[in-house]
Structure formats: structure tokens, C-alpha cells
Amino acid sequence: MKSEPSLETILKAISNKIRLEIFDYILEEKFLIKSDLITHFELQRAGLDFHLMALEDAGLVGLLEIKIKGRKYVYVYPKANWKINLDLLETNSLQDFLPSELIESDFPNLTERFWIDSSAIKNPHTIKKILESLAMKIGGDSKNNFCQRCKTTLGIMKCAKCLKLFCTECAKIIIRSDKTKITFCYDCISDQFS
């Protein structure tokens, strides 16, 4: 018994326009002779064999050789159908969330939007990756864009008290009793409790 085809094999099989048309036709006709495909698609035998081999390797079609009245016929039939399911990721809405133009002075407020106001993007690792990438492009070599506390990592969190940028190691998101979020750097947190 053949092993399950890999996703790569299936994608390769359906990525060719002619092959996809052949497969759709086979699905529609259910059971047909290979020579009918040659006639219908006006292909050379070698070309059709190439496409059918890819579809067969992907587990989408089957080939069955039957001898009738001394003559050999190769029948083609569908074995499986393919369906693509898209699971939307939280980054799906980035085009709605990010501005079409970003300047350095807008960056602190953008960090606040991501960390505090974003209901679409909740994964801190994703937020960190996006903001670090943007910080590098708007001036990652500038001292202003580094964490104001450790000075070694890009500042991607805006402190609500001192309004400076800090890295995720030097600032924390605090969830208040009313469930709202606020970001404080560790210096402002220690000032609050000392």
C-alpha cells in the first residue's frame, strides 16, 4: 500500500493549470479512458502521462489497465478530491492595523496601539516581532530607538508614566482591576512602590 502523499506533492500536482483542468475533468467524468483525455485536451501521450503521474503520486487519481477483447485500455478515475482550508492568523488584519506611512515620531504611539489597544493581535511574540522589524526600519541604529533603561535592545513598549520606549525585558503590561491595560517601565513601577 502506498504511503500518504506529502502536502508538497499535492501542491505540486494542483499548481499546474493544465493539470488542474485535467483533474477537474476527471472528477466530472468519473471514469474515462486515457485516450479520451488526449483527445479532449489535445495533448501528446507523453505530456498527458507526465500530468497523470503527478496527479497519481498526489493520490488524486487512479489508473487502471483493463484488457477488453484482446485490447488494452487505461482507465482514469478520481481517487480523492482536494480542499484548501485557510485558518486565518491574527496577522491577517495587519493591513487594517498598520498605517500606510510611518515616521519615527509616530512609533511610540504605534507601540501603545499594539500592546494596549489591539484586540486583533494578542500574541506577545507576534507583537514583538512586528514592532522590532518596524523599529529597525525607522532607525534601528539611532540611540533614541533603544530601550531607555538597558540601552542594548530596541525599545518597543511605551511607558504610560515617563512616555519613553523600553524593551520587553525592562517594561511590563499591567492589567488594572477594570481590565484595562497599561504599560510601565520597571523604573516607574519601582517609583510607584517605594
3D structure, described in words:
With 194 residues, this protein is α+β, with helices and mostly antiparallel strands. It folds into two domains: 7-78, Arc Repressor Mutant, subunit A; 90-193, Herpes Virus-1, CATH 3.30.40. The protein has helices at 7-14, 17-29, 34-41, 45-57, 94-97, 107-117, 124-139, 186-193; strands spanning 32-33, 61-68, 71-78, 157-158, 165-166, 171-175, 181-185. The strands form three sheets. Strands 1-3-2 form a three-stranded antiparallel β-sheet. A two-stranded antiparallel sheet has the order 4-5.
Features:
194 residues, Arc Repressor Mutant, subunit A, Herpes Virus-1, 2 domains
Give a short summary of the structure:
This protein has 194 residues and is α+β, with helices and mostly antiparallel strands.
The major pleated sheet works out as: 3 strands, antiparallel
**Structural class by secondary-structure content:** alpha+beta
Q: Classify the fold: give the CATH topology of the largest domain.
A: Herpes Virus-1
**Poorly predicted regions:** none
Mean pLDDT over the residues: 88
Strand order within the widest beta sheet:
1-3-2
Count of β-strands: 7
Report the span from N to C terminus: 71 Å
Outline the secondary-structure elements:
Elements: H1 7-14, H2 17-29, E1 32-33, H3 34-41, H4 45-57, E2 61-68, E3 71-78, H5 94-97, H6 107-117, H7 124-139, E4 157-158, E5 165-166, E6 171-175, E7 181-185, H8 186-193
Antiparallel strand pairs: 1-3, 2-3, 4-5, 6-7
Helix pairs in contact: 1-4, 2-4, 6-7
